[in-house]
UniProtKB/TrEMBL annotation, chains B, D:
It comes from the Bacteria. This is Sugar ABC transporter ATP-binding protein. SUPFAM superfamilies: P-loop containing nucleoside triphosphate hydrolases. It comes from Paramylibacter kogurei. Residues 5-249 form the ABC transporter domain.
From TrEMBL, chains C, E:
This is ABC transporter permease. The chain crosses the membrane at residues 42-60, 67-85, 91-111, 123-144, 195-218, 247-267, 303-323, 330-348. The keyword Cell membrane applies. Keywords: Cell inner membrane, Cell membrane, Membrane, Transmembrane, Transmembrane helix, Transport. PANTHER family: ABC TRANSPORTER PERMEASE PROTEIN YPHD-RELATED, ABC TRANSPORTER PERMEASE PROTEIN YPHD-RELATED-RELATED. It is a multi-pass membrane protein. The keyword Transport applies. It is found in: Cell membrane. GO terms for cellular component: plasma membrane. InterPro entries: ABC_transp_permease. It comes from Paramylibacter kogurei.
């Protein structure tokens, strides 16, 4: 029976469109290759206990391999080891584990790089005004899950702001940062956080957002006070609604990632492992397989590589 | 004569405890029937079974000769059976007036009542105050007081006033004077006579023998979950009644003596 | 009269006057205390005013501007509407953990019925409201007829509705621009009325009207009194003639419909239809209810209190952010201030008895 | 003689309601003091104030001539004052034995009691059953029944049995026979006499005049939140007492007549 | 004896026998019903066994293996321990929303005290346990002495403790390898005992012992009886001589300490110390408690019931996953099964009265 090979996909949540698409991609690929795919997810971002339970379930289920986007990159390591000991191949998707070689392979985008690109873009776009920019940072959650920290710190690095401790956000002292607030990564939170920061300083002109839904919410708040046209919103993800928002000028630029690619590569790798025990190759020069990140904007700036909205729309994922 | 309210072979068990053990029961039109018995004999269980508050495990209840199946006290109330339960059944946080009119609130006349469904508070409060005055419950200082702030006796007074005001076919009183003072008890007894004179039959559960012998037309003696016998107060003495109900004496043989 | 009762002859000529005592309540303070006692929602109102004053003094015009103050109203609009639903449920000694899920599912239904099936927006909104009513009915039926505990029923329904929401919507967001172009009715509650610097959205106005209406219904109709009676002691309510089942089902259905309205208002607020919204609506609505002085054990409290409770949280959140507390510290201080607000509440109540 | 329990100028207000209005109170050693009065006169409030269940707004309580400040009923209990409240104060879901020994549980002897702190259930159950039998509460079928499943009268019996078993200095009974049957009431009265013969003074609140006049040494008549007068049962008739307490007659002028 | 009482002469010779009725309870079914009635925790046990059997039939040896069955135990260990704390609190008619936060903070304290300040692990663990006790004490003090509602107190404390946790830990995860090298004591509860295919961690064993101990204490000591009395009716308990304040404070402190143990066990389970753990502990522990038949209104239920409740959820979760339901379908079905389990429970109870 072809469906004898079972693979597991464990994502951080299954409510974020990013992971939904990743799952769709994996399911489609598994179908194509005649494998069985079982998917699991944490209930909220940062919920790694559910991920531990999911790994255990996969072992009990006799799966051949696990695709994992870890909520806590170091906590999960001992469970991953348990799975590998049981003969499963474990591939980290999107987020590398720490240490990175705790997984058999990593297919990822660099979240820090994604942040850095939009930071550089925003700085270049402002030009000389970047020195007196007023920046709003719309982050994910007070628990500071890694992905949020990486994107946030990447943005600041790209913008040219001293990071303080690169493992946490909110400890920067640069006066250009008006404040950090949390959005839960959705529109509602985005709007509320933006309103709070606007009440603090109505002259904010750069808005970093953790993802595109938060950016859409922030835009609503700006629109409500009539400042939607003089504020630069940048974001990360590259989902189809997000890219459409870039096209409509709601978001200035977004860093696009490729979850479908990660997922299909991952499924192929598990099949290879199950059939002849080969492990996937890495991108030359890196300790992981880079599925890439691209800056999507129609307002390209010098010194930051970007793709057009048209191209971004072609490659968007949901 | 046909009983207005009749129970046959009523059984109610609570786990291992048998509260009603094939109990029969008859209430005739226009009479005051007293129910007496030891604590735990099953008197409250009996009246709960005939008023819809518990559904008996076995046995039937007949109203006006027709078998009835009460699924809730509301069914019984709709048939005109009004009950004062021993636990009084009031909402502690609501006011006296709210409690008296619970489930039968009065609405304002005209538009406000019909479309806004607004309650006619002044009217309900006035009626409530009148009913309480009839019972001589003068120590209630504020008709909008929450019931939980009333003294035990005051609370009982409110419950009795409610039943007397609204009962149209049968009124059941489970120890209505237990917590009442001398003056208030007297008023309740007068009220009972009064209700009877309006032609409405009453079931009165009480441990107060003088009261029972004063007002009852017939006395149902309850023992160990069933009807032991029914006596007339003028044919037996109080001390006989006490002897029957506590098992000190054998009851008269013809069970339905009276 | 039997001889046993002869002591009752003493009753002749007994007083018939209502008991009266010296009225100690003359002073202003005493009258104030009494007012607090009979109108419990005054207490959160006072806490609200005090916190407004404190933040006003600390922050000056940044906070005491019509803009900032109406911003608070906008920010609490959704929580307030959901809190109204939650209040009615909690008054019956229940709890509704599914409010947030019902809200989101209803908004998704409104959006998807318009965009996926091409229904006219009016009809889609009606379907969304019906969806809320159905969810509420299921809750109410399980609680009233099957006699299951509300906490468990709504916990289960929360998971069921939320999962349905994700499965049905396939996690797709409908963008604000598309809605504005094709079905502006969905964003109705986002419309604004400006009066000077003050900005009132239709959502805010809806919230205020809803609270006023519910306050009226709970206080001045038989249904409202029955809600309190059921929350107080359902057995006593049943024995004294309240149709407890009917009341419970109607309460949960009403809550469902109000949540659906909240879903509609949510579209107005965030512009788009997003299946990931509303994850905090449960805890935030319950917080508003309890800060507002409604007892979780049912039967006590008023809906106005919930409204003030929601505003207290809104004021604290915005005020702290403006004072420069960062997100984590704000989180911490709001925790402390929740406890503080309720402590003040308890203290005022105690003094006022 | 010095009163064993004394209250002076006690005031308790509930919102607009004045339950105690500068009330005085004296209980002498070895006596049975009855407290009578209309519903809502403030009798329960009075005994709550002297037993620590409510803290009076004004006024002082003296025990054995020394001023005491009871902050909770536990303080009063530790001084040997045992009270049966009108609301009975029982935990409905717990068993009869658990309720009787609440706060003074017996532990197994030896290791299991000392280190594992294990309760001696068989012993507690035996004592509980004995105490109930003394009161003639024979209809209780199962000593491990939850209190909520008892009939009103059975519940009251349990509460009285608890107070009688543990009171060492003063026993306060707030309407102990209100819900009791004839047999059970008689047992309670006997029990009261019994306790008195052990030298323990008793405060008895009751609306039952025959009972009051039968057992009381002195009768404290309460009206509108204060002590109206104190009479001796052999100097006045029941009808006088009723007339005083309802305001039909002026009380004897020397307030502490008896 | 006064003449008024002469009717009492009728008492002479009255029966002194205890009332007796025919014993209808002879049949097996009746005796079974009676057993259910007096031992309420049998009901969740039965639901548990039934669900085990159903999944066993559907999944065969994949599910009915010692490995899978003990895996369920491991997966519910943390929830079970926290649920034990939650049970004791809920028995007093309270609720503790801060259990998850206390658990995480305690584990962070254990980790950071070892690694940041270099304390010996034994001492760091003791500090972690003390941290739990302190958090519990604050909860208890606010509830018992300040008389604030438990829901609000622990809601506020939840936010405070969680924010403290994030601020203090600076979001640093302490890696499993480091702990294994330098302070293996922290991972104690992760140690395994293998018996055939069955794997028991020390955490699982601790859970079982904890539940047995609490069951004993609640049933057979005065303190345990007082906990029930306080939950039943705090006023009556106070009037009948229970020191309600002392009981409440001790209950919340005990809950805090148990949560700290859960934090220790958590390190054993996930290997590392991660400040983002435990976000679902509240809702999961409450779910276990309520499925286990403990009333949220206090005073009724047993800790064994909670244990079975936690296992029921564990069995459903693993069983559904193995059946191939994806995450959202699993949530949906677990929602339905939560309601179903409680419905069965109610039904059995009704039959058994
Ligand atoms: N809900 C219940 N659960 C279990 N047992 C009950 C319940 N209600 C009553 N019983 C038992 O049924 C028996 C009869 O109780 P019932 O209340 O009918 O007595 P009663 O005659 O009204 O007594 P009283 O004069 O004291 O009010 C008692 O033994 C009581 O313990
Ligand atoms: N907790 C309370 N809150 C408000 N008012 C109260 C409270 N307790 C008692 N009262 C009021 O105080 C007055 C005295 O009540 P109390 O219970 O002392 O009367 P009582 O003499 O014991 O009456 P009864 O014979 O009916 O038991 C009553 O008017 C009552 O309404
Ligand atoms: Mg009875
Ligand atoms: Mg009283």
């Amino acid at each position: 029976d072809n469906h004898a090979i079972t693979a597991c996909l464990i994502t951080k949540t299954d409510t974020n469109p990013f992971f939904v698409k990743m799952k769709e991609g994996a399911t489609a690929k598994a179908e194509e290759l005649g494998m069985t795919l079982k998917s699991f997810a944490g209930k909220v971002d940062g919920d790694h206990e559910t991920q531990v339970a999911a790994i255990e379930t996969c072992i009990a289920d006799g799966a051949k391999g696990i695709l994992l986007t870890a909520s806590d990159t170091s906590s999960i390591v001992s469970s991953v080891q348990q799975a590998r000991d049981a003969g499963l191949v474990v591939i980290a998707l999107d987020t590398p584990l720490s240490p990175i070689d705790a997984a058999d392979a990593t297919f990822a985008t660099d979240n820090f790089l994604a942040g850095e690109l939009i930071g550089q873009w925003a700085a270049a776009k402002l030009g000389a005004d970047a020195a007196n920019a007023k920046i709003a940072m719309l982050d994910l959650a007070v628990s500071q899950p890694t992905v949020g920290v990486l994107r946030d710190q990447g943005f600041l690095q790209g913008f040219g702001i001293d990071l303080g401790d690169p493992n946490k956000w909110g400890d920067e002292t640069d006066a250009r940062i008006v404040g950090n607030d949390v959005t839960a990564g959705n529109e509602e939170g985005g709007r509320k956080a933006m309103e709070n920061l606007l009440a603090k300083d109505p002259m904010i002109n750069v808005v970093y957002t953790i993802n595109e839904p938060a950016a859409a919410g922030a835009y609503e708040a700006l629109k409500a006070i009539g400042r939607e046209n003089d504020v630069l919103i940048v974001s990360v993800d590259g989902g189809c609604p997000g890219v459409a928002n870039v096209k409509d000028g709601i978001i200035g630029a977004t860093s696009q990632q490729y979850p479908l690619l990660m997922a299909s590569k991952g499924v192929e790798a598990i099949k290879a492992w199950a059939e002849n025990g080969t492990k996937p190759a890495l991108t030359p020069g890196k300790d992981f397989f880079d599925t890439g990140v691209a800056l999507v904007t129609d307002q390209a700036v010098d010194g930051v590589e970007s793709i057009s909205v048209a191209e971004g729309t072609e490659r968007c994922w949901g | 004569m046909e009983p207005i309210l009749k129970g046959r072979g009523l059984v109610k068990r609570y786990g291992r405890v048998t509260a009603l053990d094939h109990c029969d029961f008859d209430l005739y039109p226009g009479e005051i029937l007293a129910v007496i018995g030891d604590n735990g004999a099953g008197k409250s269980s009996l009246i709960k079974a005939v008023s819809g508050a518990v559904i008996p495990d076995e046995g039937d209840v007949y109203l006006d000769g027709k078998k009835v199946n009460f699924h809730s006290p509301i069914d019984a109330r709709n048939e005109g059976i009004e009950t004062v339960y021993q636990t009084l059944a009031m909402s502690p946080a609501l006011s006296i007036a709210d409690n008296m009119f619970m489930g039968r609130e009065l609405r304002k006349p005209g538009f406000r009542g019909k479309f806004l469904r607004q309650l006619d508070r002044p009217k309900m409060e006035k009626i409530a105050r009148d009913k309480l005055s009839e019972l001589g419950l003068m120590t209630i200082q504020n008709i909008n007081q929450a019931v939980e702030t009333l003294s035990g006796g005051q609370r009982q007074g409110v419950a009795v006033a409610r039943a007397a005001a609204f009962g149209s076919k049968v009124i059941i009183l489970d120890e209505p004077t237990a917590a009442l003072g001398v003056k208030e008890s007297r008023r309740v007894l007068e009220l009972i006579q009064d209700v009877k004179s309006r032609g409405i039959p009453i079931i009165l559960i009480s441990h107060n023998m003088p009261h029972v012998f004063e007002v009852a037309d017939r006395i149902h003696i309850h023992r160990l979950g069933k009807r032991l016998c029914v006596i007339k107060p003028d044919e037996y003495t109080m001390s006989d009644a006490v002897a029957f109900m506590t098992g000190a004496k054998e009851p008269p043989t013809e069970k339905n003596a009276a | 009269m039997s001889t046993d009762q002869n002591f009752e002859t003493g009753l002749q000529g007994s007083s018939n006057k209502v008991a009266e005592f010296d009225n100690h309540d003359a002073s202003f303070l005493k009258r104030f205390q009494h007012a607090l006692h009979v109108t419990p929602s005054l207490v959160p109102l006072i806490v609200l005013l005090i916190s407004l004053i404190i933040f006003g003094v600390l922050l000056g015009s940044k906070f005491f501007s019509p803009f900032a103050l109406t911003l608070i109203l906008q920010q609490v609009a959704i929580v307030g509407i959901v809190g109204a639903a939650q209040s009615v449920v909690i008054l019956t000694a229940g709890i509704d953990l599914s409010v947030g899920a019902i809200m989101v599912l209803s908004s998704v239904v409104m959006g998807q019925f318009t965009f996926r099936y091409g229904l006219p927006p009016e009809l889609a909104v009606a379907c969304g409201l019906a969806c809320g009513a159905i969810c509420g009915f299921i809750n109410g039926w399980l609680i009233a007829v099957m006699k299951l505990p509300p906490f468990i029923v709504t916990l289960g329904m929360w998971q069921i509705i939320l999962a349905t929401n994700f499965l049905y919507s396939a996690n797709e967001t409908i963008r604000s621009q598309d809605i504005a172009n094709q079905a502006p009715l969905l964003q109705l509650f986002g419309e604004k009325i400006k009066v000077g610097g003050a900005v009132f959205t239709y959502g805010v106005i809806f919230l205020v009207l809803l609270v006023l209406m519910l306050a009226y219904v709970l206080r001045h109709t038989a249904w409202g009194r029955h809600v309190y009676a059921v929350g107080d002691d359902p057995e006593a309510a049943e024995l004294s003639g309240v149709n407890v089942k009917r009341i419970l089902i109607s309460v949960y259905m009403l809550a469902g419909v109000i949540c659906a309205f909240a879903g509609w208002a949510l579209i107005g607020r965030i512009g788009s239809v997003s299946p990931t919204s509303g994850q905090l609506a449960n805890i935030e609505s319950i917080t508003a209810v309890v800060i507002g002085g409604i007892s979780l054990f049912g039967g006590r409290g008023s809906i106005m209190g919930m409204f003030f409770g929601a505003l207290i949280v809104g004021v604290f959140t915005l005020g702290l952010r403006l004072l420069g507390a960062d997100a984590q510290w704000t989180f911490l201080l709001i925790g402390a201030l929740i406890i503080g607000a309720v402590a003040v509440d308890q203290w005022i109540r105690k003094v006022s008895v």
